[in-house]
Amino acid sequence: MIEIKNSKLSNGEFNRGVFATRDIAKGELIHEAPVIPYLNEEHVHIEKTILADYVYEYGANHTAILLGYGSLFNHSYTPNATYDINFDNHTFDFFAYTAIKAGDEILINYNGEVDCNDPLWFNEGE
To answer: Does 95 map to a domain?
Structure first.
């Protein structure tokens, strides 16, 4: 259903993104990304690495590295996907927020809510 390809939206070193290989219906589960959680106090070590740009908040006291395709979704303030944290399964579950056509890049809002327009670390000066 999804694949990694080069993205024109990514400003990162690798310029990758997640793309649909088939049409995906609104509300359809796209991906369940397992997490590796760690305490927020330990994030000072991660901040010294490229991983700092790829982690997610995981509850009040933890941050998480997402496995699978989880950390490769690019950002948009008009996303076509969203995610829920599934603490019971220790996954981030990505869903289609709108219908997604085969070949389209799948985009999430890094703020965690589809309609949140707060500035992000990579565009705070804009």
So the answer is: yes
